Amino acid sequence: MEILRADVVVVGLGAFGSAALWRLAQRGLDVVGVERHGVGHEHGSSHGETRLFRVACMEHPGLAAVATKSLELWTELGRDTGETLVRQTGCLNVGAPDSQTVQGPLKAGVPVDLLTHEQLVARQPQYAGLRPDDVAVWDPGAGICYPERNVRAHVKAAQRLGARIYLEEVVEVDGATVRTQGTEFRAGKVVVAAGAGLSGLVGGLPLVHRPTPLNWFAPKEEFTLPRFPAFIWDRPEGGLWGHGSDEGYAVKIGVHPETMDIEGVVAQAFPGLDPKPVKVVPCHVTDSPDGQFLLGGIDENVIIAGGDSGHGFKHAAGIGELLAQMATGENPYCAVDFLDPARFRGSSSNG
Ligand SMILES: Cc1cc2nc3c(=O)[nH]c(=O)nc-3n(C[C@H](O)[C@H](O)[C@H](O)COP(=O)(O)OP(=O)(O)OC[C@H]3O[C@@H](n4cnc5c(N)ncnc54)[C@H](O)[C@@H]3O)c2cc1C
């Protein structure tokens, strides 16, 4: 078996791992990335053309700083590569005034606008079945980002900075040692960002795999970006999220819980659309018990990033920067105690 050494080995080059690789290489470290598929593949959680990008994150007030860091880093990287990595066309958080969907973004500490029911109806005639008390929070810094494109941009940037990449290699992690079939990597630190494979690699994590399809609907004039901007809509019968079509991609809509009849929901909520999806692609969410990510050291050598809970892509670059700071002992650019894996110490994995 070949033995190779590195300052840091990153396992998994999806959203979080590819960003960590880039931010570590940016610091001049000798860094290796190992991935069991190719770069920008469609077998994990980071594929499907687009993701919602939100700054006023309803999930936790501490996440606005991470999304803001992603925006800063992606804007800079996009300037260097000539690519658009985030497109800011805003996002509507729609729901009852006391719902988390409305209250969460108001607590995020970033500029937002609260729209009355009447303002929402006037602005978005595409919506049907709003309840009389539904209002919306407009997050102007929000929009969409691009999973495959951004992951590839991270990896290319890392390679330009000297990172070594090993693809189509399944690894096992044993403290600071990472093994593939033919190679043993001995590292100062190991970052494990293996998505749905995280529990299998480090064990003892209370993560649950949730198959979550991506659905696209035929484009229509009034459902294009920016006229039909990104949205999250909290309804008693279940949630909806999505965004308008543009530049070769169709209207995207998802439902939560995923077991809901999407054709029935779309027919009711957006009667101007043909409710039959034109494309459905499987994807995977890895849920944590509290819906927040797991980010931090689990022992002196191993740092993990995972438990994306369905809202992680927008934070990828910001999380990559935090992982690099954790691996090098720098102070984190924002407080992330609420993401510390230690909060689940003693919990066990159930898949
Ligand atoms: C349908 C859907 C919609 C979503 N919508 C949004 C959204 O609108 N906005 C948003 O911000 N987020 C959204 N998300 C969540 C977002 O996509 C995820 O948070 C993010 O992609 C998670 O990235 P990750 O790096 O944890 O996992 P992944 O991207 O899956 O990366 C893990 C990588 O590790 C590799 N790996 C695993 N095991 C091993 C091993 N043993 N050896 C080597 N490599 C290994 C895998 O191949 C994979 O490449 C959505 C997710 C889904 C499924």
Report on the architecture of this protein:
Its EC number is 1.5.3.1. GO terms for molecular function: sarcosine oxidase activity. The protein is α+β, with helices and mostly antiparallel strands. The chain folds into 2 domains: 2-49 and 147-202 and 287-344, FAD/NAD(P)-binding domain (3-Layer(bba) Sandwich); 91-140 and 213-282, D-Amino Acid Oxidase, Chain A, domain 2, CATH 3.30.9. 24% of the residues lie in helices and 26% in strands. The chain is built from 8 helices and 21 strands. It is elongated and about 65 Å long. The mean pLDDT is 96.
Concise structural overview:
The chain has 351 residues and is of the alpha+beta class. The protein has 2 domains: 2-49 and 147-202 and 287-344, FAD/NAD(P)-binding domain (3-Layer(bba) Sandwich), CATH 3.50.50; 91-140 and 213-282, D-Amino Acid Oxidase, subunit A, domain 2 (D-Amino Acid Oxidase, Chain A, domain 2), CATH 3.30.9.10. Helix content is 24%, strand content 26%.
Element layout with pairings:
Blueprint: E1 2-11, H1 15-26, E2 31-34, E3 51-53, H2 63-81, E4 86-87, E5 91-95, H3 100-106, E6 113-115, H4 117-123, E7 135-139, E8 143-145, H5 147-160, E9 164-166, E10 172-174, E11 177-179, E12 183-192, H6 198-202, E13 208-211, E14 214-217, E15 230-233, E16 239-243, E17 251-256, H7 262-269, E18 279-281, E19 284-287, E20 294-297, E21 302-306, H8 316-328
Parallel strand pairs: 1-2, 1-12, 2-9, 5-15, 12-21
Antiparallel strand pairs: 3-8, 4-8, 5-7, 6-7, 10-11, 11-12, 13-19, 14-17, 14-18, 15-16, 16-17, 20-21
This protein binds flavin-adenine dinucleotide.
Flavin-adenine dinucleotide binds next to helix 1, strand 3 and strand 19.
